[in-house]
Design goal:
Layout (H helix, E strand, L loop, with lengths): L2 E5 L2 E2 L2 E2 L1 H12 L3 E7 L3 H4 L10 E6 L6 H15 L3 E5 L2 H14 L3 E5 L1 E5 L2 E8 L4 E7 L4 E5 L14 E6 L25 E5 L9 H11 L2 E5 L1 H5 L20 E5 L5 H4 L7 E6 L6 H4 L2 E4 L2 H16 L1
Parallel strand pairs: 1-4, 1-6, 4-5, 5-12, 6-11, 7-11, 13-14, 13-15, 15-16, 16-17
Antiparallel strand pairs: 2-3, 8-9, 9-10
Bound molecules: flavin-adenine dinucleotide.
Length: 315
């Protein structure tokens, strides 16, 4: 049976949700799934991955400090030793970096940010956005190894359960080592992984008014705050919250665009959200063309009412 190798990212003893979704997508093909984990705490995460669809898990040892090129070398070695026909990771910063390195080393075409993965006969077929998200293309990989990243919040994590055989292999080592990570003090949800994103734009007029957006996000309890580039450029919000072509691509269950016009570059980062709600006082704003629900109104009046309603519904 053909094998798919999946790179699993983890934090604080748990696999990242985007990686579990990637495992789920690999599992859904019916092929054998081999997961590999690296870095400090990898051995704690490994036994949990059988339940997420892995048949085998390889723990890379000697790599407590992350090395981008070392991890790529480990992935290539595992692909070669397992005869894997596909290499998948989540479309995160680390996943994108790894995709380029692994595809380059194997002389295969990289397919980034895929929103669909299936097998047609023996060939892998993926669907991915092009033209800043205005269209998607379906492409068949004729490379010896499909190298792809999968968009977070798009595939279902496997729930079937099961256990995986865990083995270990020593890292090949790399030339670059990440020696420390300066994490943000707050433990805010990342827009890429949050199931709900509440984004604000220039319509909020000034930075302190983002409190209204934060309040709505807090009312949901599991929402992240996002922003348009206009407000990031203005210094109202950090770049880590920017959604769009030059920010992050998100695909949450529910996306709010508050005071955001809906420029093509913003749509590129959020148009695959499952449900889009636009709040804008201009009924002709382009955001309404992609919205499932629209409120034509003043954000300063709508947001407090909406926040109270969500709080009441959840209490
Ligand atoms: C190469 C390139 C890359 C880019 N990348 C990105 C990107 O990654 N992400 C991104 O977002 N943009 C990006 N942009 C910028 C993009 O083109 C837009 O300029 C930007 O998205 C506009 O932000 P905005 O919608 O917040 O502001 P505006 O376009 O100014 O829209 C503000 C909206 O708020 C509404 N409004 C005003 N007052 C209220 C109120 N009281 N209540 C409700 N609504 C109100 C207005 O009707 C308007 O629709 C990029 C541009 C370029 C050229």
């Amino acid at each position: 049976m053909s094998t798919i190798l999946v790179f699993v990212e983890h934090k604080a003893g748990a696999a990242r949700r985007a990686s579990l979704e990637t495992l789920g997508a690999a599992h859904a093909t019916g092929l054998k799934v081999v997961a590999f984990v690296t870095g400090a705490g990898a051995a704690d995460v490994a036994p949990k991955l059988g339940a997420a669809g892995a048949a085998e898990v390889v723990v890379v040892t000697g790599a407590d400090s992350y090395s981008p090129d070392g991890c790529a070398a480990d992935a290539v070695a595992l692909i070669q030793s397992s005869g894997a026909k596909a290499f998948l990771c989540a479309n995160t910063s680390a996943g994108k970096d790894l995709l380029a390195r692994v595809a380059g080393a194997l002389d295969c075409v990289p397919f980034a940010d895929c929103v669909e993965l299936k097998l047609q006969g023996a060939a892998f077929v993926v669907r991915r956005p092009v033209l800043a998200g205005k269209a998607t293309i379906t492409v068949q990989s004729n490379s010896p190894v499909l190298c792809a990243t999968l968009r977070p919040n798009t595939f279902a994590a496997a729930t079937a359960g099961g256990s995986a055989a865990v083995s270990s292999v020593a890292t090949k080592g790399g030339k670059v080592l990440v020696t420390s990570v300066a994490a943000k003090a707050d433990a805010k949800l990342d827009v890429k992984e949050a199931p709900i994103v509440v984004s604000g734009g220039r319509g909020l007029r000034e930075a302190p008014h983002f409190k209204l957006v934060e309040d709505l996000a807090a009312a949901f309890g599991n929402a992240a705050v996002g922003a348009s580039r206009a407000v990031v450029d203005a210094g109202w919000r950090p770049h880590s919250e920017q959604v769009g072509q030059t920010g992050k691509t998100v695909s949450p269950q529910l996306y709010f665009a508050v005071g955001i016009s809906g420029a093509i570059q913003h749509l590129a980062g959020m148009r695959t959200s499952k449900v889009i709600v636009a709040i804008n006082k201009d009924a002709a704003a382009p955001i309404f063309k992609v919205a499932d629900f629209g409120i034509v109104g003043d954000a300063f009046e709508v947001l407090p009412v909406l926040t109270e309603a969500i709080k009441k519904a959840r209490s």
